[in-house]
TrEMBL record:
Keywords: Repeat, WD repeat. This is Uncharacterized protein. One of its GO terms (cellular component) is nucleus. It comes from the Eukaryota. The keyword Repeat applies. The keyword Repeat applies. Signal peptide: none annotated. SUPFAM superfamilies: WD40 repeat-like (SSF50978). It comes from Rhamnusium bicolor.
Length: 72
């Protein structure tokens, strides 16, 4: 699996092994409201994603797109 972020505020999740001829991501979300995505970083286990956007607050989300609090 791979994730991409862009200036259109989207984080897209890709599964190249399971991709069909449509060549589309299997999940797209906007975790930072109306802020462009500046960087994405996986946790060492691959189950969490740090989203750095144009806002002053970075977010940690899981693979399902749910925001995690400071207890992760």
């Amino acid at each position: 699996m791979m994730c991409t972020g862009s200036v259109d505020y989207d984080v897209s999740f890709w599964d190249f092994a399971g991709m069909d001829s449509n060549m589309r991501s299997f999940r797209t979300l906007q975790p930072a409201d109306n802020h462009p995505i500046r960087g994405l970083h996986y946790s060492s286990t691959g189950d969490l994603l740090l989203v750095i956007s144009g806002s002053s607050q970075a977010k940690v989300i899981d693979r399902d797109g749910f925001e995690k609090n400071g207890n992760c």
